[in-house]
Amino acid sequence: MKAALTIDALEVNFGGFKAVDRMTTVIDDGELRVILGPNGAGKTTLMDLVSGKTASTGGKVHLYGREITNWPEHLIAREGVGRKFQIPSIFRDLTVLQNLEVAVSQEPRVFRNLRLGMAAADRKRIDEVIDLTGLEPVLETIAGDLSHGQMQWLELGMLITQQSRVILLDEPTAGMTQGETSKTADIILRLKGSHTIIVVEHDMAFVRKIAEKVTVMHMGKLLAEGPIKAIEADPAVREAYLGTGGLH
Amino acid sequence: MSNKAFLLGDRAVYIAFIVIVLGLPLLISDVFWLNRVARYLVFGMLGIAMALSWGYAGILNLGQGLFFGIGAYMVAMSLKLQSWTSLQQGSDTPVPDFMLWNAQPGAPTDLCCIVPGSWLWIPFQAQWFGIFMAIALPVIVALIIGVTIFRLRVSGVYVAIITLALVLLTRLIFIDAQPITNGFNGLTDLGWLTIGGVEFDPLMIETYYIVAVSVCIVLLLTRWLVSTRAGLILQSTRDDANRARYLGYDVASYQIFFFTVSAAIAGFAGLLFVIVSEFATPTYFDIAFSISMVVWAAVGGRSSLIGAAIGAILINTIEATVSESEMFQQAWRLIIGVLFVLIVLYMPRGLAGLARDILTRLVSLGRTKNPDAANASRNPAE
Amino acid sequence: MTQNRRSFLKTSVAFGATSAIAPGLWTRAARADEKIDVGVLFSLTGGLSIVERSLADATLMAIAEINEAGGVLGKMINPIVEDGASDTRTFNERATKLVVSDRVPTVFGCYTSASRKAVLPVFERRNNMLFYPTYYEGFECSKNVVYTGAVPNQQLSNYIPWIINTLGKKKFFIVGSNYIYPREMAKVSKILIEQNGGEWVADEYLELGHSEWGAMVSRIRSSGCDVVLSNVVGDSVIAFYREFRNQGLTHDVLPICATVTSEIEIAAMGPEAAAGSYTSFPYFQAIDTEANNAFIERYRSFVNDPTAVTQHAMECSYFQVYLWKQAVEAAGEATPDAIREGIKGQTFDAPNGRVTIDPENLHCYLTPRIARWGADGQGEIIDEYPEPIRPLPYVAYGEAEDDLFCTGAGLDSSRL
Question: Which chains are within 8 Å of B by 3+ CB pairs?
Answer without folding.
Answer: A, C
